[in-house]
Amino acid sequence: MRYLGTVLMFLALLWHGGLQAGTFPVADRVVVDKSDRKIYLMQDGEAFRTFTIALGIRPNGDKEYEGDFRTPEGTYLLDVRNPNSEYFLSIHVSYPNGQDIRQARAKGLDPGGAIMIHGQPNEPTRSETYYQTQDWTNGCIAVSNSDMIDIWLMTANNTPIEIRP
Question: Can you list the domains of the chain with their CATH numbers?
């Protein structure tokens, strides 16, 4: 509930034309560097915005199965937006791809899904400092709420995202 006013204001600005994607640069690619805890919005091969991220609580290694608390590695798409997420906005990452599914099934595992870039929880259960200083997701890529607004506005559906170790 804490962020409901912010979300409503954001959506009202979008609805009334106060915020328009056309006034912002739009990424043609997104790169996540897990080891540096950074996400880069790219245009023509150059980063034009950089944000600090949190990852899954077991950040080292590629996601292999549902519940491993790892963030996947590889190339995907940002394919669906959810303004009504449990977190402050979310953009779905198209994990798992065919290779991810084959690798998990070869081990008799479910690859999982629901990997997102998102803001902070709408109903936090920990301190603000915890969310800013720890890897805390189940495998998603988390940013601050203000950074999530920028990412939301500066990416389009089907933008490629590369997640590096």
Answer: 26-164 (2.40.440.10)
pLDDT at residue 18, as a whole number: 47
Regions in the chain scoring below 50 on pLDDT:
1-2, 15-20
The contacts of residue 164 (CB under 8 Å, 6+ apart) are 31, 32, 33, 34, 35, 73
Q: What is the pLDDT of residue 24?
A: 78
Residue with tokens 């549902």: 66
Strand order in the sheet with 38-43: 46-52, 38-43, 29-33, 159-164, 74-82, 90-93, 116-118, 141-142
Residue 157 sits at φ, ψ, to 5 deg, of -60, 145
pLDDT of 9 reads 53
Q: Give the Cα separation of 120 and 88 in Å (integer).
A: 6
**pLDDT computed for residue 77 by the predictor:** 98
Residue count of the chain: 165
* Residue 14: per-residue pLDDT: 53
